[in-house]
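Table S2 (continued). Query chain:
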Amino acid sequence: MYLISFLLQINDSIFQRGDTIFKGDEVLYIITPNGIEEPSELSTIQGVLAFIIPSIVLGVILYYQRSKFRLKKVQNGVFRQNLPLNRDSLFEAYLCLAAVMIQKERQDAGKKHLYIKKFLLTYFNDSYYNFSETISGYYKSEPIQPSSVAEWINKYVTDYGKRTQVVYFLAGISMVDGEIVAIEMAFLKEMTRLLHIKEEDLESILNTFSYYDFKKKQKHTTNGQSFTSSILDSAFKMLNLNNGATIDEVKSAYRKLAKIHHPDLFSTENEGQQKIAHERFVQINEAYELVLKSF
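Corresponding output:
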């Protein structure tokens, strides 16, 4: 027994579970009434099972509890209105709406899943949710009522700029292949209305994705100049203007957007919302500088 105590003290990889001494997954010794014995093949298997089975059971319990916790947020397709505002509840609201968007148009579903994963890992990287599992769970459950999700968001996310982030997320899903189909546009307009977002701000968001899509095409095309006009037009539209606006109108439009999207306005929000605000403001500044250069 002194040997066992010594080994446990000097080697962190050696540990004891009941009457069995392990080194990683390997059974080293078994403590019996007759003393310490080296394991037979059968006892080794039993020892490993004694280690693995509780882990599997614990994993199943945690999975069940997490699924149960998730389903508590949505009952009969309705997003619960008494949920407190926190990172996880907001994350769940995003996932609910993402599931609806993909159900509306399943074409390029794989790309959409990748976009959602990248978005959530970037802006909600400290969340414990498995987004694929959660979205799949919503597919199999009652159809989600977007109006109930919007009602919860409006109740707790009272700042206009912060609600536009939800539309920004959904627009990104719909634009994964560079274009948007009618049913996706209809859903975006529905969410814009439900979240009390101005349609011009939806157009600004959509043109943001078009702007960067044109820039990407310009970079990978031999005749990149052919996209210059489209890029400039998109930059104007990102500022909610038409190409041909005066410089005073451009400056006024920029100030208006800055009052909505400036990162300082998100300083008390979670890290994910701050990151989205920073990215959005960088995009608006880039469009503004390009438009100014055109005068």
